[in-house]
Task: structure prediction
Amino acid sequence: MPVTRQVTARKNILRLAEKERKQRFLRVFLRRVCQFRLTDRR
Result:
């Protein structure tokens, strides 16, 4: 039982890490797009 609990905890941690990574990537991507559009307007 403790082993399965450890596995589920590890899976949850991995899932959270993946979510964080995706959010960070989206944030950086949006920032770059905004900068590109601003420079393009000029």
In short: The chain has one domain: 1-42. The radius of gyration is 18 Å. The longest helix spans residues 2-41.
